[in-house]
Design a protein that fits this description.
By secondary structure, this protein is mainly alpha-helical. About 60% of the residues lie in helices and about 10% in strands. The chain has nine helices and four strands, in the order ααββαααββαααα. Strands 1-2 form a two-stranded antiparallel ribbon. Strands 3-4 form a two-stranded antiparallel sheet. Helix 5 runs antiparallel to helix 8 (about 170-195) and helix 6 (about 135-150) crosses helix 8 (about 170-195).
């Protein structure tokens, strides 16, 4: 027997609408559009003279900082009502049995991405003559609280260390192994909210609604003999 689903309260509808708006803005911002087109390969080549050359993606710092002002509300700031784990938990209250089971299956990996136990890789360096390593969660904390939104003195030495190396050295692992997995999880919830009928088309950004209508019209036209 299917579980009876409660009616969505106005307050929770507002939270879900804020969440999907932020996710859509994040997905459509210039940094992400360019990210999709870039080659993200990091490679080292040694020429005939024995000189090593490293090629790596060049991420626009201004675009990245602009993107982070949105991402922070979804993937970093635990006190924000749109923080991913809060939306994740709230969805379970209104989800169908099938979606609730899917959320339960995904939960462990999603929480690991948010809380830092899933790191992807580590980056090493030297501070005060000591070898140090940074997991991707620590790199995100440094970028967020030591560079972009704050200048936390706890991160000052790490910021100074990474300032001596190319920016991709810390941005590439942070973006690739931490930020983008969280963003993909947010996009997944964006889709689930609509597919499961928790939200309707009218709850989504108008630009998304227009694109959806255009896609449906194109699909119907292609099906017409």
């Amino acid at each position: 027997m299917a579980t009876l689903r409660p009616e969505l309260t106005p307050e929770h509808r507002g939270l879900f609408r804020d969440f999907v708006r932020l996710v859509y803005e994040m997905d459509q911002c210039r940094f992400v559009r360019r990210y999709r087109e870039q080659d993200h390969t990091v490679a080292c080549r040694v020429d005939d003279d024995g000189e090593a050359t490293t090629t790596a993606p060049d991420y626009d710092w201004d675009d990245f900082r602009s993107f982070m002002t949105i991402f922070r509300k979804v993937g970093i700031a635990v006190n924000e009502p749109t923080y991913l784990s809060k939306i994740y938990n709230l969805m379970g209250r209104y989800a169908s049995d099938a979606l609730r089971q899917r959320l339960g299956t995904d939960r462990k990996q999603v929480m690991a991405m948010l809380n830092g136990s899933w790191t992807g890789m580590q980056v090493g360096g030297t501070i005060d003559g000591q070898e140090v390593t940074f997991a991707t969660g620590e790199l995100l904390d440094m970028v967020t609280n030591g560079m972009i939104f704050h200048e936390d003195p706890d991160h000052r030495k790490a910021v100074e260390m990474f300032a001596k190396s190319p920016r991709w050295n810390y941005l590439w692992p942070t973006i690739h192994f931490k930020i983008m997995p969280i963003k993909r999880a947010a996009v997944m919830l964006f889709r689930y909210l609509w597919q499961d009928g928790i939200l309707s088309d009218a709850d989504y950004p108008e630009e998304w609604q227009s694109l959806k209508r255009a896609w449906e019209a194109s699909k119907n036209n292609s099906a017409t003999p």
